[in-house]
TrEMBL record, chain B:
Statement: the UniProt record of this protein carries the keyword Transmembrane helix: yes
Origin: domain of life: Bacteria
Cell compartments where the protein resides: Cell membrane
SUPFAM superfamilies on file: MetI-like (SSF161098)
Name of this protein: Carbohydrate ABC transporter permease
Region (Disordered): 1-32
Domain ABC transmembrane type-1 as annotated: residue spans: 98-303
Keywords, ordered alphabetically: Cell membrane, Membrane, Transmembrane, Transmembrane helix, Transport
Organism: Microbispora oryzae
Topological category with respect to the lipid bilayer: Multi-pass membrane protein
Length: 311, 318
């Protein structure tokens, strides 16, 4: 990374402690916060193996072994939530994933730097909006009383309310994700595009490759690593499809189509105070997610790519 | 100082994507069909992003007559007034919520930045004692988490239920952001730092006078990330302050009174006493929507120019 501090070669531990005292002090606040709010909850996972009683606390609640998991796996609502999560993940993978790539290619072909900067700042913007705001905007535009139906009604056409229709819910949430995140998603691809050696394009052009051949043989191979990395991340997050987005809309479309694993854990863990069941659902999700990340990386390695970490 | 700054930016930030202002000799001349297809699709993308925001703003600025004539949302300005904003800002619920949101965002961002910058610098010096171990400790939290319920139990166990700090402290540290800052600090020119050390500067002084001034872009971007996180948070409100409507930030007010309509429990008309009507006027609803956008739109232009300097690239590579 960098040269060792030049004024001291290989100092002993005590000398390093004195030398790095300030550095260690600087790290303390962050470490304390992480210990309290990230590591302490790991012990809280014990509640998944207990009949957790808020009055008795984690230390004094009765042990349940795997009873909570038996309850969880016997609950049809849990399987419904799992099915919805996987389905929504799959649809988002198919419909969302290619859009940032296409957008990045399109933007990369714009020659004027000022135009590119302008478009970039506009498409990044919705990423910074809250889900409440995005869903409110969608509701105002596409909802029963929204702009689209205003227009349809005033032209005596059939109205169409996508915001409360369970069967088209998947399209609604996917288009929300596209609107909010597709622009931001181009960041990685633009970075990868700017790393492609321009000499390659010139050489290919001299050899007679047209712009589409150049895209196929130079640009897309240049993006391959990033695309695989993004796929690995997406696969590892297959069980997280966006918690707040579903929490806000769950009541409008009903839990049959809008319940996902995270909202399940929330409703049965906190809203009904069945903490142990909720913790069990959360633990199940974490374990499967870790397995998915691991598996996706293996897959990436099989294709000769780095994925999230190297072999 | 300017010298320091130029040296620093020259070596520490990644190169911006190359500006291709002109066509290379080997590139084909653009075809009319290709150019118009490109223009149309980019125009379409921009329209999809901007038109909804335009409609929100125009409706919030419209007179009740204009809203009536349009039959709802106003696309084309017809009669403009600030009435909706005046009504909204005299409403105690919205006023309190705005103050709460600003307070949480400012306090939270300040705390997060201090903690993260210190931690990132503390871990960025090569071969310092224990930095690998601490780094592992940090990274583990990115992959393993207790999840919703155990975190909730810890926060409530510490007495966080109904407290504003429950909206700030549990999410104050983003390991991802620390890693981004750290990767930039690690790239700060070693000569500069050694020179400062020769002049007798300790690590605190080096951080303040050398590292921070040479990494303004990444600092601004990370601060924006944190601030947006606090400003947008609503789920933590639902978890820890579900019933204290006088402590609600703006996002939760937006959710309750605009997204879910005026029929929510919690005495809507008492809380949102606008014009004593059953439902809040549409233009006022849109004014609340616009209000949640305004701070972002004020800050965004100042920060987004840094997006081009390679900060995002570094951020994404993490």
């Amino acid at each position: 990374m960098s040269t060792p501090r030049s004024w001291q070669e290989r100092p002993g531990r005590r000398i390093r402690l004195r030398r790095d005292r300030s550095l260690l002090i600087m790290v303390v606040p962050a470490v304390v916060l992480l210990l309290v709010f990230n590591y302490a909850p790991l012990f809280g996972l014990l509640t998944a193996f207990q009949y957790y009683d808020p009055l008795a606390g984690v230390w004094n609640s009765d042990w349940a072994g795997f009873d909570q998991f038996h309850r969880l796996f016997a609950d049809p609502l849990f399987w419904g939530a799992l099915k919805n999560t996987l389905y929504l993940s799959l649809v988002q993978l198919v419909l969302f994933f290619p859009i940032p790539i296409a957008l990045a290619l399109l933007l990369n072909s714009v020659l004027s730097g000022r135009m590119r900067n302008f478009i970039q700042s506009v498409v990044y913007l919705p990423h910074f909006f809250s889900w409440v705001l995005v869903i409110t905007i969608f509701q105002q535009l596409l909802g029963g009383a929204g702009a689209l139906n205003q227009f349809l009604r005033s032209h005596d056409l059939q109205t169409w309310d996508i915001t409360t229709n369970p069967s088209t819910f998947v399209l609604l949430v996917t288009s929300q994700v596209v609107w909010k995140e597709a622009g931001w998603g181009i960041v990685v691809f633009l970075a990868a595009l700017s790393a492609v050696n321009p000499g390659l394009y010139e050489a290919a052009a001299v050899d007679g490759a047209g712009r589409f051949r150049r895209m196929w043989h130079i640009t897309l191979p240049g993006l391959r690593g990033v695309i695989v990395l993004m796929l690995v991340l997406r696969l590892g997050n297959a069980l997280s499809v966006g918690f707040e987005q579903f929490l806000i809309q769950r009541d409008a479309v009903g839990h049959e189509s809008a319940e996902v694993l995270d909202t399940y854990a929330f409703y049965y863990g906190i809203a009904t105070a069945d903490y142990s069941l909720g913790a069990a659902a959360g633990l199940f999700k974490s374990v499967i997610s870790l397995l998915l990340i691991w598996g996706a990386n293996k897959l990436a390695h099989c294709f000769g790519e780095d994925g999230l970490y190297r072999r | 100082m300017t010298k320091v700054f130029t040296i620093g930016t020259g070596t520490s930030t990644a190169r911006a994507p190359r500006a291709r202002a002109e066509r290379r000799p080997w590139q084909e001349r653009p075809t009319l069909a290709g150019q118009s297809a490109k223009g149309l699709s980019l125009g379409g993308v921009l329209a999809v992003m901007l038109v909804p925001l335009w409609i929100v703003v125009v409706t919030s600025l419209s007179t009740p007559g204009a809203v009536n004539r349009a039959g709802g949302l106003v696309v084309w300005p017809d009669g403009l007034t600030l009435q909706a904003y005046r009504e909204m800002l005299t409403d105690p619920t919205v006023r309190t919520a705005l103050m709460v949101s600003l307070g949480i965002t400012v306090a939270g961002t300040a705390l997060s930045m201090v903690v993260s910058v210190l931690c990132a610098y503390g871990l960025s010096r090569p071969r310092s004692l224990g930095h690998r171990l601490i780094l592992v400790l940090l990274i583990v939290t990115m992959f393993v988490s207790g999840g919703l319920i155990p975190t909730f139990l810890v926060v409530t166990g510490l007495g966080g239920y109904g407290q504003w700090w429950a909206l700030i402290l549990p999410s104050a540290v983003s390991v991802f952001n620390i890693l981004v800052l750290r990767s930039f600090y690690a790239k700060t020119s070693a000569e500069l730092i050694d020179a400062a050390r020769m002049d007798g500067a300790g690590d605190w002084r080096i951080l303040w006078s050398v590292v921070l001034p040479t990494s303004r872009a990444v600092t601004a971007v990370i601060a924006l990330f944190y601030a947006v996180g606090y400003w947008n948070s609503f789920f933590t409100v639902m978890l820890y302050l579900p019933t204290d409507s006088e402590k609600w930030p703006l996002q939760y007010v937006l959710l309750t009174y605009v997204n879910r309509g005026a029929g929510m429990p919690g005495s809507v008309n008492a809380g949102f006493g606008l014009a004593h009507t059953q439902t809040t006027p549409l233009s006022t609803q849109m004014a609340v929507v616009a209000l949640t956008l305004v701070p972002l739109l004020i800050v965004y232009p100042f920060v987004q120019k840094h997006f081009r300097t390679g900060v995002l690239t570094g951020a994404v590579k993490g």
